[in-house]
């Protein structure tokens, strides 16, 4: 039956111009020898440029599981932003390759293998969505980007990709991402689930989702004073004054509330010498805004953010952002783009994030978590406990509000024999975990620990 459906859908796709394309990549500039894993790149057409605004060609990187791709789960990964390329997840966080950090003297950046790649036991499609991100491009001059367009296009992308790769139709499917992806991904999972229930083909073997340091309520900044106080970044007196004068609202402060404005400005000044992605590191020059861009919805980030720029300034080598500089220099090279089979003339200048003209259609994804919990989908929610952008307390708060009973209470979880964080499991098949010492986002700072966490969870083993 599955084979008949696949043939029918393939025939329908033939009628659509440039519906899908895929190319096997065996060699990459900067990597010595043949790649020891299966890498495929390609495009999938979404929308209908004849009848819809916002259609386009979605670029992806697909890495087949290095273990047992026939049986291992398949995960679609979206980087946050919004509007950031999935190249970030591939090269900085969970993919099988990384840029070698070494002194830049004008030579071509080199690549190395990442031993903590999540592709050791899971096939992953890194997708440049929404349309206009990374190497994805619009079919029409007018492009309207937003959460609902991203949701519809992700579902459409996955259906078409599975039709073009029928050997994965029976594999368990997960949707994963971090940062701003915490807003659209629960809605994407619900969209896929609803499609399955309505008989939309191909049926997708959806099992759950993975979210790291996820934006969820768009009110995460309200937990910043509690986070800063708990991390000993502000004094007891300032914290108590903030609580008294701001009454828990730090996002839309009343201009007439001068006491609150003054105290929150004090908090900002006390944190201004720290990296906005991780409080345990000092602020450092950035090659760009980093792998997840900037968060233009928060007053604190508006104060500190750097505008995305196509002009790269080389940071100091002791900066974490030095690796960003090397990676962006690598991906912008014509030889690399030829190796990745990028369509010439579609992208003038690759950018890590493109967040302009994005419609924030969803301001709270908790209702989608509630619906998915009722349907029994598994979920892994993890937080770097040194992340000031999405403090772990804000994530704990909305999980607590779901009001599901605890089936395994708060305990440490270990990696390499050491405490790597703390975890708790709930009756709705949700696992929450902190990653000790990690920032925004966790695998960037603690790759060994996050690898252990993910591999255990995806294998249905306790953390």
Automatic annotation (TrEMBL):
One of its GO terms (cellular component) is extracellular region. The keyword Signal applies. InterPro entries: AB_hydrolase_fold, Peptidase_S10. Residues 1-22 form the signal peptide. It holds the Pfam family Peptidase_S10. It is found in: Secreted. Keywords: Carboxypeptidase, Disulfide bond, Glycoprotein, Hydrolase, Protease, Secreted, Signal. Its main location: secreted. GO terms for biological process: proteolysis; secondary metabolic process. It comes from the Eukaryota. GO terms for molecular function: serine-type carboxypeptidase activity; sinapoyltransferase activity. Belongs to the peptidase S10 family. PANTHER family: PEPTIDASE S10, SERINE CARBOXYPEPTIDASE, ALPHA_BETA HYDROLASE-RELATED, SERINE PROTEASE FAMILY S10 SERINE CARBOXYPEPTIDASE. This is Uncharacterized protein.
């Amino acid at each position: 039956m599955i084979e008949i459906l696949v043939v029918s859908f393939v025939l329908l796709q033939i009628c659509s111009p440039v519906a899908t394309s895929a190319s096997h990549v065996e060699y990459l500039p900067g990597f010595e020898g043949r790649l020891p894993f299966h890498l495929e790149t390609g495009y999938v057409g979404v929308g209908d440029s004849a009848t819809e605004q916002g259609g386009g060609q979605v670029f992806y990187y697909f890495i087949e599981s290095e273990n047992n791709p026939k049986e291992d789960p398949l995960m679609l990964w979206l980087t946050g932003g919004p509007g950031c390329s999935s190249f970030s997840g591939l090269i900085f966080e969970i993919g099988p390759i990384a840029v070698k950090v070494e002194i830049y003297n004008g030579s071509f950046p080199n690549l190395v293998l990442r031993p903590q790649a999540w592709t050791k036991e899971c096939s992953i499609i890194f997708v440049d969505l929404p349309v206009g991100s990374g190497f994805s491009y619009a079919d029409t001059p007018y492009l309207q980007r937003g959460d609902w367009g991203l949701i519809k296009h992700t579902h459409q992308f996955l259906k078409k990709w599975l039709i073009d790769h029928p050997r994965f139709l029976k594999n368990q499917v997960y949707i994963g991402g971090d940062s701003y992806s915490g807003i659209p991904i629960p809605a994407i999972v619900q969209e896929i689930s609803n499609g399955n229930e309505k008989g939309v083909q191909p049926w997708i073997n959806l099992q759950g989702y993975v979210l790291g340091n996820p934006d969820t309520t768009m009110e995460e900044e309200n937990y910043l004073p509690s986070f800063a106080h708990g991390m000993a970044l502000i004094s007891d007196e300032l914290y108590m004054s903030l609580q008294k004068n701001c009454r828990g609202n730090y996002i839309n402060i009343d201009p007439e509330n001068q006491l609150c404005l003054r105290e929150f400005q004090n908090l900002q000044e006390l944190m201004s010498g720290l990296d906005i992605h991780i409080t345990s590191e000092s602020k450092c020059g950035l090659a760009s805004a980093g792998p997840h861009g900037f968060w233009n919805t928060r007053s604190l980030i508006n104060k500190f953010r750097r505008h995305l720029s196509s002009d790269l300034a080389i940071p100091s080598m002791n900066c974490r952002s030095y690796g960003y500089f090397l990676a962006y220099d690598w991906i912008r090279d014509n030889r690399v783009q030829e190796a990745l089979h990028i369509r010439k003339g579609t992208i003038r200048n690759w950018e890590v994030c493109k967040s302009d003209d994005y419609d924030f259609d969803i301001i709270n994804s908790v209702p989608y978590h509630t619906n998915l919990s009722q349907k029994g989908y598994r979920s892994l929610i993890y937080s770097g406990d040194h992340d000031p952008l999405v403090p772990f307390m804000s994530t704990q708060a909305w999980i607590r509000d779901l009001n599901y009973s605890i089936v395994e209470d708060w305990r440490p979880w270990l990696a390499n024999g050491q405490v790597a964080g703390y975890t708790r499991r709930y009756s709705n098949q949700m696992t929450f975990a902190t990653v000790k010492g990690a920032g925004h986002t966790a695998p960037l700072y603690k790759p060994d620990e996050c690898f252990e966490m993910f591999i255990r969870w995806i294998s249905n083993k306790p953390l």
